[in-house]
Amino acid sequence: MSLSIETSIKLATGRSIPQLGYGVYQARSKECEDGVKESIKVGYRHVDSAQAYHNEDIVGRAVVQSGLPRSEIFLTTKYMPSHTVHSTESVYDILKKSLKKIDRTGDENPYIDLMLIHAPFGGEQGRKNNWEALVQAQKEGWIKDIGVSNFGVPHLKSLPSPKPVINQIELHPFCQQKEIVNYCKENDIAIQAYSPLIRADENRYKNPVLIELAKKYNKEIPQILIRWSLQKGYIPLPKSTTPSRIKTNADVYDFELSSEDMKSLDGLDEGAKGACTWNPVDQP
């Protein structure tokens, strides 16, 4: 399996997304800005933010300061819905606020590469309105691709057309969400993996399978986890604000997990109870 930090995944629309992304969940202020700049320095070309992270503007500023053209950085952010049904027009206005924050290049035609609905809140009508706002923005061209996050199969099935190009869900060997993954694969919906490092859970990192594989490949456990995700065809979003970690998290292209070792990792799945974070895929 030939993978590199330049590897990208082709979306259903024909556009491509860099497979390795840099996550900025809970990263604030200078640590977020420095983290984004460091990630770009070591080769990441994909940054994942969200309205709920309160750092879209910091990400946008860091991209400008990196010195790279805006076209070389893939920027994702997420609209955070509420449990209340909002009109398509009001959601559209909120999306516009993200555009002003995350694309700070000053170009005449700012844009967001990918906008997701962060969670399946609001019931079927709320999700419909939220989705229609994203569809409108995509038609106007200032959002290039649209998708969802934390959506279960029933949520995906009930969305109006077009289909989302991506579903971003918690994914790692202990929480594999196989039903959702299988549905997405069958419907040409790419899969982004958040919390691919299991939040560096100390107890999880003591798992003998992870320890054995780290020793076998002379790699750290986070590198084994990221490589598993890449070989699965997912789009992992590891997060760190430590420069050395940002670098090692991208140093995953000089080895390949064997099919037997991939099966060993697959065997760690604990279903829903394996989730280590907020995982609202069963919302009504």
Automatic annotation (TrEMBL):
Stated name of the protein: NADP-dependent oxidoreductase domain-containing protein
The alphabetized UniProt keywords are: Oxidoreductase
Q: Which PANTHER family match?
A: 2,5-DIKETO-D-GLUCONIC ACID REDUCTASE, ALDO_KETO REDUCTASE FAMILY PROTEIN
The protein's matches in Pfam families, at most eight in alphabetical order, are given as: Aldo_ket_red (PF00248)
- What Gene Ontology molecular function terms does this protein carry? oxidoreductase activity
Q: Which amino acid positions bind substrate, per UniProt? A: 118
Signal peptide residues on this chain, from the entry's feature table: none
Q: Which PROSITE patterns match?
A: ALDOKETO_REDUCTASE_1, ALDOKETO_REDUCTASE_2, ALDOKETO_REDUCTASE_3
Quote the SUPFAM superfamilies the UniProt record gives.
NAD(P)-linked oxidoreductase
- Site, as annotated: Lowers pKa of active site Tyr: 78
Which residues carry out catalysis? Answer: 53 (proton donor)
Q: Name the source's superkingdom.
A: Eukaryota
Family membership, please give it: Belongs to the aldo/keto reductase family.
Domain NADP-dependent oxidoreductase, first and last residues per copy = 34-269
Q: Which InterPro entries match?
A: AKR (IPR020471), Aldo/ket_reductase_CS (IPR018170), NAD(P)_OxRdtase_dom_sf (IPR036812), NADP_OxRdtase_dom (IPR023210)
